[in-house]
């Protein structure tokens, strides 16, 4: 944040001639193994190339006092990756006042020895790769004014404050003015935070985002010197009160985004006259903003209220905030008509997002932008009831991000939209566009992310620049997109290609599979593509999603698919593939969704010939390597996300969609949760017993083996799949009784074992009786509720150990 980097950049410039002992310590430090960079190549990953013929006080990153003692060391952003121990020469700089080791990668537990630097007033260890408990020794640095331990919250081994806790760490740091603890696991409530920091009312900056803080937000009304408050990305809840912000006349930055705060936003928060940046997005605030004409801070430059439940008329007071550079009111319930003619009042505005409200934007196609109109760099007007391309866009030459999706824009895509050399992101999906204005030119702008899906595009399509990375033309009606595929063979930077649900026909060009070294997503489902799947997938395949569902593909599953070690979603269902089970998938440990349904797969589900020295019979198949379907002890169920491919260059996320038969229905899952794991191999000719490895997949939510030729009994290990929501084993040749352990599936909401050769009683006093008779019918030997066929004497047979634990046995020598 602004305040943070201003503090970091203020260095002591007074220096005298370097003392010999200080010079020796610096040389020891630079040459020591502890401070060698092994992460990055030069120049980022090096220590300073200090010129030993010059005074050491003039060396880069070194500052001295008038007596020639080193009082400042800035070793930030050097790629240092070796650990520090308490014997390091670093801890022998007795006069050191400022130490900056930020943005390195030490990859070690937090070292001891910092307490030896008792003159430190500035300590910055942010994002330096330390992990584990912050030691209590830090509390002995009583001269600290600035303390920055910010960290990336990437795992449970990240930095934490538990023993000692926050109170023990700061209790002696009475001079503290700037405190940054972002990303550190603290797990305190708002009340505890207030109690621990109450003695530090002279704090100017408090930044504790992503610290697992919970409970009500504390009052900071006694912190009269506070300039910056960042408590974003926590779990704070409840309301915020007007009195919490009274008297904070110096407050410039407030970030409470991504919490669970609710209620109305108090007008006093907007009225802090020094306020420059306000972030309240991704909460549960509701109600209207109210009439704030003449009351909001005239200095406000950033206002982000997105992703809440705010409602009422559009807050027109924003047009009085002449210093606004960013305004984001997206994903609320604001209503009203917004005239673009009012925006010349905000001539400094560069980033505007009004998407996904109930707003209508009055922006005629004629060019209305006067010289004082804002110069946008990012403009998002998705779902704003636009019916035509706004004319003012013709003069927006600085625009690099434009989203006009989910509107009612008709007609052709105008040629002028490609003229901006700065435009790299364009999303005009989900409109009523029918084609491209002629004469059509190839796209030679800077666009590398283009989303045109969900229109009615047909006819010829312009060719993208060769550096494009993301292309989504799905859900249109043009059969000529096949010509586009042929033009993409030289696009070596392409990461996402979605041409699904069009009318393309012909074979899939071999070059697309060769592009798998860059492609993360290839989605060609719901077309009329024919021929074989080329066995030319790159050895360095990066595919995470491959979706070829609902085409006319035949032949076999390519062996080179086994190169795609990052594959999470594979959907080749509803084709004419004639093959045995694709054992090349056995080493793809990330696989989460597998759809083979409605093909001509046949044979047993086993994988002989594994590259190991196993002999004889094994009780688990090679598919046990599918770790994504097995329990993950580190998984946080409260942080579920959608399965997606993220382009880190542009922050664009592609969300996978598949068609799967689950709960007896063919469903299209547009957004797949990361917890969703499913196997659908229905409508094939697989035979033999159900493989026992399925019992390891305890994360499975859906399992569909229906309409095959499986034999043997229903393995009782299904009772261990506690997350299972849907189980379809219908239309096979399964024999024996329904295992009692099947009644342990508390989350099971769909079961179908009909049309098999099952016998015996349906286990009673369980939820199995809640399913319909259709779930069990056409098993001539089955009896008991919900069937009308009564049973004789109850069976005393228990599940046998072999059946309950192993399922099928695979002979690796056959």
Automatic annotation (TrEMBL):
Superkingdom, natural source: Eukaryota
Localization (cell): Cell membrane
Gene3D superfamilies xref list: Ribonuclease Inhibitor
Pfam families noted in UniProt: LRR_1, LRR_8, LRRNT_2
Major location category of this protein: membrane
GO CC annotations, alphabetized: plasma membrane
Topological relation to the membrane, as annotated: Single-pass type I membrane protein
Keywords carried by this UniProt record: Cell membrane, Glycoprotein, Leucine-rich repeat, Membrane, Receptor, Repeat, Signal, Transmembrane, Transmembrane helix
Domain Leucine-rich repeat-containing N-terminal plant-type: 39-65
Region ranges (Disordered): 793-814
Family: Belongs to the RLP family.
PANTHER family, A to Z: LEUCINE-RICH REPEAT RECEPTOR PROTEIN KINASE EMS1-LIKE-RELATED, LEUCINE-RICH REPEAT RECEPTOR PROTEIN KINASE MSP1-LIKE
Protein name, UniProt field: Leucine-rich repeat-containing N-terminal plant-type domain-containing protein
Species annotation: Gossypium mustelinum
Source lineage: Eukaryota, Viridiplantae, Streptophyta, Embryophyta, Tracheophyta
